[in-house]
Amino acid sequence: MADFQTIQAGQDEIAVRKDLRVPMRDGVTLAADAYQGLDDKPRPALVALSPYGKELQALALTTPPQRRPSPMWDGCIEAGDIARVVQEDYVHVIGDLRGSGASEGEHIGNYNAGGVSLGQDAYDFIEWVAAQPWCDGNVGMIGISYFGSMQVIAAAERPPSLKAIFVSGGHYDFYETTYHGGVMWFMPRAAREGRGGDSGWAFTDGVKSRMLETYSAEEIRERVAKRLQDPDVAAWPNLFHVLNYPKNHEAWFDIVMNEVDGEWYEERNPVNLARNIDIPVWLQIDQGRGWTMDGTIEAYNALQGPKKLDIGPYPPMQSRPFIEEHDKMFRWYDHWIKGIDNGIMDEPAVTVHVEGSREYVTGAQWPPKDVEYKSLYFRPRRKLSFEPELMAAEHAAPDGFYQAPLTVTDKVEILSWSTEAFTEPTELIGQGAAHLFAEIDQPDTNFILRLWDEAPGGKRQLITTAYLKASHRELDEERTTEGDPYHPHTRAVPVEPGRIEEYVLRIYPFAATFLPGHKLVVELSNDEPLADEHNALLPPDAFHLPVGRPVTHKIYRDAAHPSRLVLPFTVENR
């Protein structure tokens, strides 16, 4: 059994088995490294799988954890603290997914949707690990973001040796990961290409575009030409480049080419797969990037076995190497894998950190408290009020802004409205809706809404966000309820210029208490500001695709057009 080498990890020595070859059922082998204590005994294993490269993850042994906005922060070092895993007496097994790093095979499409299922590979990988003499037959998984999503994909295959998973910062519905309200998000580009604080995928010739594998060269040319008819895409150099040279970044090409939801994204959608999972699952997410909270909650509700939901405090980005949730993770695995009765299942299923009060609220479900939806109406003079506007449009003239494309300006126009200062603590927990009665002079635009908690001295913290591409305004009326809108995003319907329409934006889940003296401020734009208090905490490429055409926006908020926020106030605030 003693076929390992020893390496230094701080003041300790640990053992590592390098470049293990893990056979898949189709004959392809995946590459892996396994880290453990020096005494050669069987241990439970924690498996980490991604396309980011196992060697990159080993920097956790030598790089102190970095927080944004440190320039040394690397978003792809996500497999966890190797030394800590070994100290807790687990084997840390880090593998390269098919077609990436040192592994064989082809990785076709995002989540390998067009080739061999990554869930199938994960099943084979986990069962191989469990059968090794250095493993006691019990396996969990580790890692955030892509690694976290792989945990859900793996657990849905139900490998017998996988006893539990602990997912932090995962992304689930892949369409909603890459198009927020239909608006393209650039972060997946960074994670795949390696840009602005991300090393990117460990690309090989085995990483291939599903689009290029599926369609003929002529069909690709036709589809690319159609995609370039979108002025947002045509105006953005990176997208123009990737559409003309898709071989440069094949995985990103697939995302750009599929701007609406449907079979492309639903195949092996982790939210749908979660319905097959009956082992214990802990899902954790931090506040500040609402769409990841939304997906986490949706996945949590789909799970069939013992489960916990843990929503942590702002800011949204964890350190790299990732260490923040290790104490909770080891309590979880000590209980479910090592059989230690540590009382973790006697604690509430849902724990939510409430911004503002800095308190934790617990309950049996999301939201953990009963809520009452109340409307805050947009009013003249940039006010938000619980009372609706009584005047007609000729007296309560619309607010408006003109946004030139960022190709000709670096100024992002922003409208804002705010409440009066709260006189008593006011708690809101849940998701919500923004109803905007708007008129635009183009067939499309973005509506980007950001909600802030503004303190008396002017210091602000982002609470949550909402996005909607105007052409994606269609609602699923059967799934939509008060304060909880649902957009199918299966087609884009151009807007009739000059027509007033009601746009309903989904306000992503959040939890916040507005303290006395604080105000709720809502900002509306069609592009994101290039720098502000929140964006400095995100990787440089964590922005959304700007609008590529000049657009004039009029926001009506009069008696006939009740533009408003519908927000979840906890019942204690009645």
TrEMBL record:
<dbReference type="Pfam" id="PF08530">
    <property type="entry name" value="PepX_C"/>
</dbReference>
<dbReference type="InterPro" id="IPR005674">
    <property type="entry name" value="CocE/Ser_esterase"/>
</dbReference>
<dbReference type="GO" id="GO:0008239">
    <property type="term" value="F:dipeptidyl-peptidase activity"/>
</dbReference>
<dbReference type="InterPro" id="IPR000383">
    <property type="entry name" value="Xaa-Pro-like_dom"/>
</dbReference>
<dbReference type="InterPro" id="IPR008979">
    <property type="entry name" value="Galactose-bd-like_sf"/>
</dbReference>
<keyword id="KW-0378">Hydrolase</keyword>
<dbReference type="InterPro" id="IPR029058">
    <property type="entry name" value="AB_hydrolase_fold"/>
</dbReference>
<protein>
    <recommendedName>
        <fullName>Xaa-Pro dipeptidyl-peptidase C-terminal domain-containing protein</fullName>
    </recommendedName>
</protein>
<dbReference type="Pfam" id="PF02129">
    <property type="entry name" value="Peptidase_S15"/>
</dbReference>
<dbReference type="InterPro" id="IPR013736">
    <property type="entry name" value="Xaa-Pro_dipept_C"/>
</dbReference>
<dbReference type="InterPro" id="IPR050585">
    <property type="entry name" value="Xaa-Pro_dipeptidyl-ppase/CocE"/>
</dbReference>
<feature type="domain" description="Xaa-Pro dipeptidyl-peptidase C-terminal">
    <location>
        <begin position="330"/>
        <end position="566"/>
    </location>
</feature>
